[in-house]
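Case study: 2,3-dihydroxybenzoate-AMP ligase.
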Amino acid sequence: MNAWPEADAARYRAEGYWRGETFPRFLARVTAAYGDRTALVDDRVRLTYAELRAQVDVVSRGLRELGIGAGDAVLVQLPNRAEFVVLWFALQEIGAVPVHAQPGHRRTEITHLARMTRAVAHVIPDVHARFDYRDLAAACSAVRHVIVVGAPGTSGFIAWDDLMSARARPVGVSARPDDLALLLLSGGTTGLPKLVPRTHDDYLYNARAAAEVCRLDTDTVYLATLPVAFNFTMNCPGVLGTLGVGGTVVLADTQDPASCFDWIERERVTITAITPLLAPVWADEARHREADLSSLRVLQIGGARLAEDLAREVIDSFDCTVQQVFGMAEGLLCLTRLDDPPDVIATTQGTPVSPADELRVVDEHDVDVPDGEVGELLVKGPYTLRGYYRAPEHNATAFVDGYYRTGDLVRRLPSGHIVVVGRRKDQIQRAGEKFAAPEVEGHLQAHPAIRSVALVPAPDPVLGERSVAFIVPAGSTVPTRRDLAAYLSDRGLAAYKTVDDVRPLSDLPRTPVGKLDKKALARLLDDEPTAP
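Here is what the predicted structure looks like once written out:
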């Protein structure tokens, strides 16, 4: 694992960003402070902090009895349920490393993760969303142990209940603050995921800084509706930020707004997080359903660029503060502030949560560009990685002078706010002109006949690349290419920022964490003949 240079590490410690705490000490501290308060809720259980700690002690002992110990990687592939959090802290107690697999991953991804991490165990549900994870685990035989939450089924798999029957006693492992605490998956949608190493010091600071910006306290009730293994859900401020202040985490294994609104009403949720792909669906539900959402104070939207028109629609639809979130598993987290005016919330992705975050915006030659100009965002800081896990060749090009190349194209305003334009690789080269697909998507999203839209390039013998708009219609009428070209022209876009082809879909494909999956859309075009 690539560590921070000692000079930077010493500064982060001296300035109080890194406090020398580990996750076992974190759990002990919050248990002592908030023992009788409710820590976790899902559709089956409610656990106080003291009950959470007791279950962690039992499971950590059960893991040790299996021979799992310090430094061992364990693939955690559980949906949003209390066992995820219990297991996660139990692994921390014994010095093992949770690898945040997603419920949507299948054999290719799980085999890759097991090989990359040399994982000794794989923890799964028995059946979730009509998929039998026991069959998946049986096909991925690289690990020593498969632990099943539910019925183990296949001989040789270990039931979670067997871990829970272990006798709890101290396990005697002492982690260091700079030890590897977990492995997150990179958020890219191309190729197999890279692994992001996070330490106790840096990940705890990430949670603490985000919680401070979001003003979390003991009255906070956080609804985890996106996958809990997603960094956004886990730590921005998410699960860990909420537990750190004595709040309550509600784990909802759904992103359906009707079900989530029931959770908000029943548990008096104060903060939750969704992606831009979910935003129009949630806004529509809020407008047409009488639900008591009066407890909701903050609605975070992140994981991808939120278009201005959609941001304004969501702000108008909810009687709470909408917060834009721009972050990455690799580290940097930007948030709009709760007292920012609506125009700032609608048009920017906020500012960094840490005063120690160092940002550069550069051109293709790594030369800094003036504020207001578009360039690639480079970043370093007390919670941004200095190297991917076991990826020396990729690291050689992913960093420059200690700065991480995010691949995001942004504009930095004189105020310090970041405006995300798109991804360096999410561009269309049409007729000799290059434009960012998310910019045009944002305008198309405002079209009254469009519910959701994604723009992808396709090879073209004349244009080089043509722009294909995959559209989920808002009604029965699908706008034509000419309709959209005229619409974009009326909104003041240059003529080359247009749509050459329209493909209606019933829904847009998503990655395992709920982001738009453009790779899946590109595959739909792969076998088609070139358009005239």
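For the exam, be able to explain this: The chain has three domains: 47-175, 201-423, 427-526.
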